[in-house]
Specification:
8% helix; single chain; mainly beta; disordered N terminus; 9 strands; 2 helices; 42% strand; 136 residues
């Protein structure tokens, strides 16, 4: 079990986001089981600008996230099975228990450092490119 202040980064995988202004590359940790999804970025104090965390929920369903025990402010991208972004929640408040809903059934959520979505001009409809997603 992680303790406050502990940092346990998993192996990363390449991921990119295709926008009207071009592709943006990231290295992401992929959370593929209940234990890792529930831990997420809890207790971490920093994350590199080109890193993120991808939550694979394994099935398409409405999801909700929260920031309990998460010290970083984050942008959350809710992603459909084809990789298209359904919704972006920006600047999630650290350590909040406020529920952040997907707004529709999604397969995954990508967490990036807060401000990344605005800085890169990310928008609903942009496409996340990673083997998890199957374009139509």
């Amino acid at each position: 079990m992680l303790q406050a202040g502990a940092f346990a980064q998993n192996a990363t995988e390449p991921l990119s986001i295709a926008t009207r202004k071009g592709n943006h590359a990231f290295n992401v940790e992929v959370m593929r089981d209940d234990e890792s999804r529930s831990r997420g970025l809890m207790f971490r104090r920093s994350m590199a600008a080109d890193h993120g965390m991808l939550f694979d929920f394994e099935k398409v369903a409405p999801v909700a996230m929260w920031m309990k025990n998460t010290y970083l402010s984050l942008d959350m991208l809710f992603i459909r099975p084809d990789g298209s972004i359904a919704r972006i929640a920006t600047d999630a408040e650290p350590q909040s228990t406020r529920v952040i809903p997907s707004g529709e059934p999604v397969l995954a959520v990508l967490e990036l450092n807060a401000g990344t979505a605005v800085k890169l001009g990310l928008a609903a409809g942009d496409r996340v490119l990673h083997p998890l997603f199957k374009p139509r």
